[in-house]
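tool=predict chain=A
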Amino acid sequence: MMSVIVQNDEGFYVYTKGAPDVLMGKASRILIGDIVDQSEQSKDNFIKVVDDYADEALRTLAVAYKKVDEEEALYGATEDVEKDFILTGVAGIIDPPREEVKESIRQLHDANINVVMITGDHKKTARAIAYDLGIVKEKNATVLKGIDLEEMSDQELYAEVKNVNVYARVTPEHKQRIVKQLQNHQQVVAMTGDGVNDAPALRAADIGVAMGITGTEVTKDSADLILLDDKFTTIEKSVYSGRTIYANIKNFMRHELTTNVAEVLALVLGLVLFRSSVGNVAAMTPTLTALMVLWVNMVSDAIPSFSLGYDVAETDLMKEKPRNPNESILANHTWSRVLIRGTVMGAMVYLGFLLAAQNGLNASEAQTVAFLTLVYGQLWHVFDARSSRTLFRRNPFGNIRLVGAVLFAGVSSFLVTIIPFFNSVMGTAQLTLPVYLLVIFIPALPTLILSGIKEVFKIKIW
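tool=predict ok
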């Protein structure tokens, strides 16, 4: 409520604007045309108009006045001046929500994110706006007012807070209580605001979101995120971007760990099992040379892995439930998938080395077979690592950077086996065309077979 005192030829007048329910409590009469009416019927009619406006999602603002004498105008206390008003009218103001806001709320609901509206508006106005936006599904949805919160203990609010999506006529303290009780339900709470009175709730929330254009400096300082465009739709886009980034990090970890397991296992198997000479390969010859391992880590593994960071989200990412913030990045069978696929890949690398030795290839050639089997096994696997399900669910050309990285790694790894300089430095050797074809395409089989079984039988562990 705000009042001003104006002096004119007829004396001193107090003019006031404020919430209708507040002004009604401080008014004794209503101006109808030229008649000042103080009947209960006129007050009931006034309240009905306010309610009708509120039901139409209009924000309401009442105006009133009263005449005061000079002494009261100049020296009267506020509580004495702001009473016994004559109500003159009520304005219904609409700020229609953008259609994209409704769509953003629908997207957030699909993403299992609950949207709660906390406002200073009239109870009925708040309910109507919330219904129009899709925050609540029923026209008579429960709305808690600030005065209701005042009368509720923390335990009572705790019992109600998950079932209420609209709060009206609240104070900064109420916002803070709502946030804390939602957190007590193990909810991760994001709170938006732009005014100084929003700062305590933003600071209490897990994620405080401030408005960058209309937000005060105090609010921005209290926030974790600042919306530069002040649009609600940006929140929904931020959720989408955040989930995409997290999914890409998880895909990166899945691929890196799988290929590292394969590298280590291939070397360990050679150390443990290759105890006697086979063909032209001496006993205890390592499966891979040190520089081969370095090349795998720096080129054929790292470059495609980094390209996963540019991947777009899987189509149903915004339909998943929010993850537990305490959940390991390796949860949901990621560990088993890493170990199973890494073990199969590593075993195939050692098997390639062993078969090459048995077929009369020398040590450098056998190590080159193992090297290329590992390289191309990784390059086939990276397309499977893109998906939390299987490679058959994603377009392999959906990430052009990844395709380019795979081609670069594949071609460069082939070239280091035919260029004499790399032959002498890395210990590689040139192979025959049939062997090259085998080490390029055979390593695809584990990825294709395991993904195919998973796709058909819905096996989650790999």
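The longest strand covers residues 59-68. The chain has three domains: 2-93, 99-230, 236-457.
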